[in-house]
Amino acid sequence: MAEVTMPRLSDTMTEGHIAEWLKKEGDKIEKGDVLLEIETDKATMSQESYDAGILEKIVVPAGQTVPIGTVIAIIGNGKSQSKPAAQETASASAVDGAKGPLPVGPEGSLPAGAAANPPAATQSTQPAQGQPAAAPADGGRIKSSPMARKKAEEYGLNLASIKGTGPGGRILSDDVESAKANGGAVAQPVSTPAPASPTAAPAWGGAVLPDDVEAPASAQPERAAAAQPAPAVSSADYVEKDLSRMRQVVARRMTESKQQAPHIYLTTEIDMTEALKWRQTINGVLEKDGGSKASVNDLIVKAVAKALKKVPALNASFENNKIRLYNRVHVSFAVALDDGLITPVVRDADQKALGQIAAETKSLVDKARKGRLALDEYQGGTFTISNLGMFDVESFTAVINQPQIAILAVGSVRPTVVVKGNGDTDNPEFGVIQAMKVTVSVDHRAADGANGAQFLQELKRLLQNPLLLLV
Predict the structure, then answer these.
(1) Domain check: are 55 and 165 in the same one?
(2) Looking at residues 248-259, what average pLDDT do you find?
(3) Is 444 a catalytic residue?
(4) Global confidence as pTM
(5) Using CA atoms, how far apart are residues 27 and 242, in angstroms rounded to an integer?
């Protein structure tokens, strides 16, 4: 018998979400067969079987999230295959004649039909459904779910003044939310009912409240002037949603980076006029050859990789109080997803032609958006690019993707009027360039401002003379 456990599929993974089982209990399994798909904080990945046999038991069904190392299935020879849990429960109920306690539904309520024939004593003592769950005469506990009691305490509401919509008037959490949304709990019932009046409205199972009796005319102004409770903020005014696993990791890692790494920022403006012309020419060639067109970001990936070979101080990571300088250049680039951010990697980007980089980045972006990136396609980067130029962002600063020590923030390319030639003359010459602002964030523990400045100088030289990218 072999246990299938939740694997560790990334360096940041602490738990995995079972998206779908591709095999069912009783299926024959061969080594290498894909058992299931697991959603991590980065992507959805297929998990193969390391053993052959019969899938005897799926311990953790699809839709659940468990920590790494948790047993999620059992593979054996099929002889010890257990019955499904629902079948076992049904068998057990048949054996004991269904004399055991009834199953408990959401928030402690009974399932539909379970209370169709309650004992007579219960029928005589329970209030009708939807009636307020007033305190029992014997001072016992008001019938309410644990979640309802917790919320009532949190909101400062009195359970005795809330209508219960559960079986037998049981107060559910939704009842507490409704009471809060309607301005808080209603008035407490009085122990001694006031004399009945033709204008009195019955409440609380027949008890009459003081407000049900028409007050004397002289008392009307005081009643009208009585202070009203401030209305509570309704849950309809906002929508809350839980963080996705990816967003949780992004939140944690970015917080750690800003807390641990002292960021320094350096900005420069690059004239992209020649680079854009060169890109247009290259794309004409790539299109004829059936290749992928190069984007501005592809040009930047190539230029960053070559600049890092010239300034290797930023092609590094900071771990365990040591600086690790890399011999190879693996450029990560940020891709925004609906529920987070992921950074696919172009490996050995300095050694690849622009057309090759264009095809690779297109494939990586497509996989990232479908959640199909393999482990080695988004791990192991040595430097990161974050480009928001397509959103018309002029400039920004990015948070370092630790353990890397630097990240480049890229703004949009836009026409800009500049002074050409000698700006100190009395008659300066003006011109228009296609300008792009870039800002490098550097971890000051591992590098200095001078390293960042040298990197920006080299990046600027390459992009303003794009033929150098071919050398």
Answers:
(1) no
(2) 90
(3) yes
(4) 0.60
(5) 36
